[in-house]
Write a structure and sequence with these properties.
By secondary structure, this protein is an alpha/beta fold. Helices cover about 35% and strands about 15% of the residues.
Length: about 425
């Protein structure tokens, strides 16, 4: 099926009520037929609903539909995008291990990997997304994950997915990729060799800033990379917390299964059924919206490229952009989403422009139907010093735009008056 058809139909079999809309199963628990049925569910001899911290019928539709759209095997929904990232890393690594991350990352991801994970005993080593060959020197026997973003936020770089995956596969290391900005409509990293994809569903998936949630998707056949791989002994040895279960021996996708039975069960960052329902509504229009976001963003980027106060525009849909070739290679039709950034001469000039806009809203979010403006150096990346800002591609005069669904001429007029303010 094509993406638009998957977005409308995948994962939902009408129940006894034959509802066209996916129902909201707003419940915490489920009744078992008898003791044997309950025991079989907990032992995975039968599959079914146990408790909403583990699974829920509405969330199940969301997970299946998203997995279909990413062309993956299985998905696990979480309470936020940050929870999805943490679970993906914690599912592979433990104290004493390390992960390798692109330096060009969303500010919250930088903080989680560089600081929070350190308290769990997991070290992070950074590489420049434009120089994947540097990854080789960062890898050792305790490296468990190579993490990057398909379209970086807010530096707007496009990673060379094939090159990074080839390096990871050489050493038998899992790749985890944040595909939030591109969405599965524009880019499906699992088809390019990535092992696990994560998303903040709070962004383009919902499309209107209505709900917080996240999701991870594992690729088809990932079990073969995990099986007998000494880096991931915990997938190959009995899990004492789940009656000796060996994940690679179960006929279910092992990465999301372990994340569900271990991390979601024990740490509990579960998405609510209502939020899953909102994400399902968002998915139905996602293919249409991403085309419009990309179309509008390109028009705005072309305007910014000609403005005398703008020293640089970061948008891979522009032929002049250094990421143009990778965007053409990895993104459907070269469409480059609705996120762009541009640079002006100083921190103060950037602040004046941001404060002067009238249609754009000053919000630390992206992917909304309404256009958003952000000054990363004073908000999302405020915790970084000047050298760290430079390393992750966020100079003091950088302004990020999330282009919405308004008429692009109105957005351009708003920027024009803000530049003159």
């Amino acid at each position: 099926m094509k993406q638009q058809t998957r977005a409308l139909h995948s994962g939902y079999t009408k129940d006894t009520q034959s509802t066209m809309a996916v129902p909201i199963y707003q419940t915490t628990a489920y009744e078992f037929r008898d003791v044997e049925h309950a025991a079989n569910l907990f032992a995975l001899k039968e599959l079914g609903n146990i408790y909403t911290r583990l699974n829920n019928p509405t969330t199940d539709v969301f997970e299946k539909r998203f997995a279909e759209m990413e062309e993956g095997e299985a998905a696990l929904a979480t309470s936020s995008g940050m929870a999805a990232i943490f679970y993906a890393i914690a599912n592979a690594a433990e104290a004493g291990d390390n992960i390798v991350c692109a330096a060009q990352l969303y500010g919250g991801t930088l903080t989680q990997t560089a600081h929070t994970l350190k308290r769990f005993g997991i070290e992070v080593r950074f590489f420049d997304v434009h120089n994947p060959e540097a990854i080789h020197a960062l890898i050792d026997a305790r490296t468990k994950v190579i993490f990057f973003e398909t379209l970086t936020n807010p530096s707007i770089d496009v990673a060379d997915i094939h090159q990074i995956c080839a390096i990871a596969d050489k050493y038998g290391i899992l790749t985890v990729v944040d595909n939030t900005v591109a969405t599965p409509v524009l880019c499906r990293p699992l088809t390019h060799g990535v092992d696990v994809v994560v998303h903040s569903a709070s962004k383009y998936t919902t499309g209107q800033g209505l709900a917080i949630g996240g999701i991870m998707v594992e690729r088809k056949g990932l079990v073969e990379k995990l099986r007998a791989n000494p880096r991931y002994a915990h997938f190959n040895e009995p899990d004492a917390s789940y009656h000796g279960l060996v994940y690679v021996d179960v006929p279910l996708p092992p990465f999301t299964l372990r994340a569900r039975l271990s991390l979601l069960r024990d740490l509990g960052a579960v998405v609510s059924p209502f939020n899953s329902w909102l994400f399902i509504q968002g998915l139905e229009t996602l293919p249409l919206r991403m085309r419009e976001h990309s179309h509008n963003a390109l028009i705005v980027a072309q305007f910014l490229e000609t403005h005398p106060l703008v020293s640089k525009v970061n948008y891979p849909g522009l032929k002049s952009n250094a990421n143009y070739a990778n965007a053409q290679r990895y993104f459907d039709g070269g469409a480059s989403s609705g996120l762009l950034s541009f640079e002006v001469e100083s921190f103060e000039k950037a602040k004046r422009i941001v404060d002067a806009v009238q249609i754009f809203s000053l919000v630390v979010n992206i992917g909304d139907s309404k256009s958003i403006i952000t000054h990363p150096a004073s908000t999302t990346h405020q915790q970084l010093n000047s050298e760290e800002l430079k390393a992750c591609g966020v100079p003091a005069g950088l302004i990020r735009l999330s282009i919405g669904l308004e008429a692009p001429v109105d957005l351009i007029d708003d920027l024009k008056q803000a530049f003159e303010a």
